[in-house]
Amino acid sequence: MVDTPVSRAPRTGAVGRAGLPRHEVPTHFDDGAGDYDRLVGMNPGYHDHLRASAARMRLPHDGAGLRLLDAGCGTGASTAALLGVAPRAEIVGVDASAGMLERARTKPWPGSVRFVHTTAEAMEGVEGPFDAILAAYLLRNLDDPDAQLRRFRELLRPGGTLALHEYSVADSPRARAVWHAVSWGVIIPLGRAATGETALYRHLWRSVNSFDGVGRLRDRMRAAGFDAVHSETMTGWQNGVVHTVLGTRP
Asked: Pfam families from the entry (predicted)?
């Protein structure tokens, strides 16, 4: 019931809105990598919704000849979603958590998929341009989301697509209530039972509560220079809670 790992530049001593010091978050994901796939597998719709966001990018021709970036790829769930809609594309997955990437690399991938250990801000060892970027559960964990959106725009070819797959509940009292109930009724107790700790799951709860509404996310993308910005939500309990926000580089 958790989201994909954050990919951020550590900032020593900084305390994020979610309560964990930012430089500690990748370490928490490193420690939880062994349980991660099992936990997200218990979330109804988790993988289907990642595939939905990937499909909403409308990538042509099974991805033949395309280069795709999976920013914040974690253990590879979002990478698999991209591969499902673009099996012939070159896919580069990046994440700040070495533990998550180690687990991702143990899975069977075609030679067209590779993983790079780097933050989304630095993108060390990653060169554009890309035809599309998927950033799942990433932007709300970054110190400067506007700068990151501009960086994504620079990494895209003209006409390329950015898809943000993200929790966003600020615009809906119903969505906020659902998120609170699911977090404290399921996510945090399940995380405690599986890992013996709750810091990361309380971090998730708080970070979503303090993040942009989906309208603000669309505004951020437009301000960063994206065209044709729009959003779609998901089905099930995630309706109005999880969204795809899409935009195109002119």
From this structure: Ubie_methyltran
Give every CB contact of residue 136 below 8 A, 6+ residues apart in sequence.
3, 4, 50, 53, 70, 72, 73, 74, 77, 78, 164, 165, 166
Task: Spell out the domain ranges in the chain.
Answer: 22-248
Name residue, tokens 């003209």. 158
**Around Cβ 77, how many Cβ atoms within 10 Å?**
23
For 34, counting Cβ atoms within 10 Å of its Cβ (0-12 exposed, 13-18 middle, 19+ buried), the class is middle
List beta partners, residue 31.
none
Structure confidence by residue, pLDDT tens digits, 113-140:
999 999 999 999 999 999 999 999 999 9
Question: Is the CB of residue 73 less than 8 Å from the CB of residue 115?
Answer: yes
Question: Is residue 181 classed as helix, strand or coil in its secondary structure?
Answer: helix
Beta bridge partners of 136: 165
- What's the CATH class of domain 22-248? alpha beta
**Residue whose C-alpha is closest to residue 37's, from 100, 130, 126:** 100
**Alpha helix locations (H) across the chain?**
25-41, 46-55, 77-85, 98-105, 145-155, 173-182, 188-195, 199-209, 214-223
Q: Inform me whether the pLDDT recorded for 199 exceeds 60.
A: yes
Could you tell me the two tokens for 219?
């505004």
Q: What is the pTM of this model?
A: 0.87
How much is the average pLDDT of 175-186?
95
Distance between CA atoms of residues 241 and 169, nearest Å: 5
